[in-house]
UniProtKB/TrEMBL annotation:
Top-level division of the source organism's lineage: Eukaryota
Organism classification: Eukaryota, Sar, Stramenopiles, Ochrophyta, Chrysophyceae
Protein name: Uncharacterized protein
Organism: Spumella elongata
Length: 197
């Protein structure tokens, strides 16, 4: 029986299925639990994941999905080694940090504080007319969204921006997203000029 919760634990198991208690065996003494009366055992990473999954259904769902994609399809965390569990923890921690980093930039405004003014981006009239022409002809798979590309195109000289638009026009049948194509093209042109973006 589990000394922590009292549940029946089969002899072949080293972790309680209900509370995650880990039975540490004392190899030098020839068996036994190796624990003093009332002393808690050390939980192995697999047992810890199992215990945490009981506390958080979302973590359990994440573990099951991760095991199906990256593991052997077995969802019992005690069947995996410490290295695999460490990879899962690194992966989920990275997702949490990335999510928090995104939210950190969106802090609430204090009393009397104004939101930062939106940057106005201006592009040359010839560039805007070329975009309007490309959109009106209807040869593009999707229209060019001026808001999506204005900041990128504004970094270029007028001739270079028109060159990028002409390249788009020439390859329009092969391009699924003209906005992404233009942003990438601007980056290529800036790198060719030695300008960091």
């Amino acid at each position: 029986d589990c000394p922590e919760c009292g549940s029946l634990v089969f002899a072949g198991r080293d972790t309680c299925f209900k509370c995650g208690w880990y039975f540490e065996e004392d190899k030098s003494a020839g068996g036994g639990s190796g624990l003093a009366e009332g002393e808690k055992g050390i939980v192995k990473p697999g047992g810890a994941i199992k215990l945490l999954a009981k506390l958080s259904p979302t973590l359990k769902k994440a573990w099951v999905a991760y095991s199906k994609v990256y593991g052997e399809g077995v969802t019992d965390p005690t069947k995996y080694g410490d290295e695999y569990i460490a990879e899962f923890l690194e992966y989920t921690s990275g997702l949490v940090i990335a999510d928090l980093d995104k939210k950190a930039g969106k802090r609430p405004l204090g009393d009397g504080e104004q939101p930062p003014a939106k940057k106005k981006v201006t592009i040359k009239k010839a560039v805007a007319e070329k975009i309007e022409k490309l959109n009106s002809v209807g040869g593009l798979v999707a229209p060019i969204n001026l808001r999506a590309v204005a900041a990128s195109l504004a970094k270029l000289e007028e001739s270079a921006a028109l060159e990028a638009l002409s390249l788009l026009e020439d390859q329009q049948d092969d391009i699924d997203d003209p906005n992404e194509f233009l942003r990438n093209q601007v980056q290529v042109l800036l790198e060719a000029e030695g300008i960091e973006t």
